[in-house]
Write a structure and sequence with these properties.
By secondary structure, this protein is an alpha+beta fold. It has helices at residues 2-32, 51-60, 64-73, and strands spanning 47-49, 75-76, 90-96, 102-109, 114-121. Strands 1-5-4-3-2 form a 5-stranded mixed β-sheet.
Length: 141
């Protein structure tokens, strides 16, 4: 009689464990499918933000959702991109956000992640105090 009491609990536990294994395998497959040699990967599941980008986003009132929107549908500006950039090629994507800001967002596309490097409002000159700004013009004469 006592064995039957634990049987439903054991079945649920085994099903949860199987689901966990399947989810983990799917995540590993997503990373394996990334091929960064075929152009810009627009999947937002690999996105990360640099401290500089987060600061610029905050200053220029650009949300994570708007960054993802531009990543998915923005137009690549190859003149502002550097496909030979190290350690990762950088792509400058441009578009209009949901609140009508014309922006350029620079993404660094690495092996297993895409980093947001900076976010630029192309029409409004915002005054931002972000890390790294003090050395921006250091090497210019």
């Amino acid at each position: 009689m006592k064995k039957r009491k634990w049987l439903p609990f054991l079945i649920v536990l085994l099903m949860a464990f199987a689901l966990l294994l399947i989810k983990n395998a799917q995540r590993e497959d997503d990373v394996k499918d990334v091929n960064r040699n075929r152009g810009f990967d627009r999947r937002t599941s690999f996105i990360e933000y640099t401290k500089h980008a987060k600061c610029r986003m905050d200053c220029r009132q650009i949300s994570d959702e708007e960054v993802k929107e531009i990543m998915e549908s923005g137009k690549i500006n190859y003149r502002k991109s550097d496909l030979k950039d190290k350690p990762c090629p950088s792509y400058a994507l441009e578009g209009i956000t949901s609140d009508n800001q014309r922006v350029r967002i620079v993404f660094g596309q690495c092996d297993t992640k895409t980093k947001v490097i900076t976010v630029i409002d192309l029409e409004t000159d915002w005054t931002c105090e972000c890390p790294g700004d003090e050395s921006k013009f250091k090497n210019r004469n």
